[in-house]
Amino acid sequence: MSAAHNEMGEMHAPAHASHSGHGHAGEEVYVKVFTGTRKAELDELLTRYPTKMAALLPALWIVQEERGWVSSEGMAEVAELLDLTPAYVKGVVSFYTMYHQHPVGQHFIQVCTTSPCNVCGAEDVVNALLKHTGCEELGVTSPDGKYTVIEVECLGACGFNTPLMVNEKFIESVTPASVPALLASLG
Amino acid sequence: MGFPHSPHERETLVLSKYFGDKDAIGLEGWRKRGGYVALEKALKMTPAEIVGIVKESGLRGRGGAGFPTGVKWSFMKPGDGKPHYLCCNADESEPGTFKDREIMRWTPHALVEGCAIGAYAIGAEVAYIYIRGEYTEALEKMNAACKEAYAAGILGTNAMGTGKTVHVYVHKGAGAYICGEETALMNSLEGRRGNPRIKPPFPAVAGLFGQPTTINNVETLVAVPHILVNGAEWYKKFGRPDNPKSTGTKLFSVCGNIQKPGNYEVTLGFPFKDFLYDLCGGPLPGRQFRAIIPGGISVPIQTREEAENSPMDYEGFVANGTMLGSGGVIVIDDAQNLVKQIARAARFFAHESCAQCTQCREGTAWTTKILERIVAGDGTHEDLETLLEIGENMTGKTICVLSDSCATPVASGLQKFRGDFEALIKKKKVHMVPAAVA
User: Fold this and answer.
1) How near does any CA of chain B get to the CA of A43, in Å?
2) Is ipTM beyond 0.90?
3) How many Å apart are CA B96 and CA B295, to the nearest integer?
4) Using the 8-state DSSP alphabet, how is residue B276 labeled?
5) How far, in Å, CA of B407 to CA of B418, rounded?
6) B98–chain A Cβ distance below 8 A for any pair
């Protein structure tokens, strides 16, 4: 329930988004994710399900953990390992909001603004974050590449308003006043 | 306030007894608190005996629909030669609900045990716990608990030394409210887009990987060990004496404009008025409760008067125009713009629609646009009728109930708080007409 979508689902590509790929002279060559321990991890996952396809979401998580986002090359690598087509994998990736199809800021901040948090002032927290990160706009990475702030739908922590996530870290009870200290703690 | 809050004397702590107790998280501490006694007992019983006790206890699904758990389990026919599966729905994402998160955070082994018993009872060797991707702490705790349970021989191909196979695996979601819908959850687990499936066939006939499957909520499964240890009669005593249809204790998550938000465990049938004012401390200073959504954002909105008259059980909420749902209580006070909050709820559904049904894809988007237009001061009286008309087209006509869930707060909001909408329309902005046109 997250990702660089605005409220009606359109994607905002961060300013520095780029697709590294094959076939362009001078660009970096794709390094495979599933080697060594990561390959062993996938092999263990495959024992848990009767189909290879069921390991798709976990495999995509491994790609994102390693690379910070899921590139077309990452999708193709997963597709080959699980006997799927790259187009199928892209279809799945684009359904779920937590897989990044573009690189995001070093600190990817998702703020819950759904009704229960909204009545407790979540929009003020968003505004404070936009101001103090220099992002100015939702879904746009700050000029220094450090932050991306988005609104997220219900994080399931409605009694802890306002909750937000910074990458994989869940932070509760954020107020506009606590935003500067929070950002400072991220480094 | 800190979580979990210190328990109120009127709470009945069964599932939440060890919330906040760090020593209950690991296997050793959990065993000292009576952990895995129920599983040991269960593995010596026949699956039919377990299903019988759960049926007798009156336990109903805690995820929202309230279907009797024992009856659901009895749909799984033993000895059909097919692999069976148990899915634990830990994709908690109904706005207002945050109880399963606390269960997994503080008592992860309770869920491993509940899943193991549930799997054995329905003839499944594998249980998957589908946890929403955002619940990083719950994921970490559940993964650690499973690892400990395997290392201790509780899970695996010789579960607790009985020679029976019980696997429990954690599966991480990737951000989609709709995956809390049981057929969407199964599709997602299979590695597909989380589109709900048409029913029938029902999951007990053809579910996960096309095989007989049962899907249960986290809170439902963690209640099962207590029922097996203490008996169905013990469980049935919790509830209103005059309402045998709602038994046991229930976790209610409380949020919004209220003194003490948090999770509370009470017996079903507890008076909602006492709950809101006594346990949760009532409204914020100088404010009054205005509207209350008692079961997650998908259920009809209640006025304060309706809420104060409701016993907190399946039938009590229905009698007062709403539903128990997932037990996510959202409180909105008189300082809020109620229409803005209904618009925000609609935006949630528009964002989360899987878009396979036209009524939902178009309906959630237009409902949002019209409501946001009204909030911005650009609405008309006709908009209100249009909203109701769209809502009618969104109800009972789609593969799953996400569409209905979007229409519900709008219809109940318009029915009970129409004045709020009209006041915004009356304040309609007068747009400047450019001089050249005029």
Assistant:
1) 15
2) yes
3) 8
4) I
5) 15
6) yes
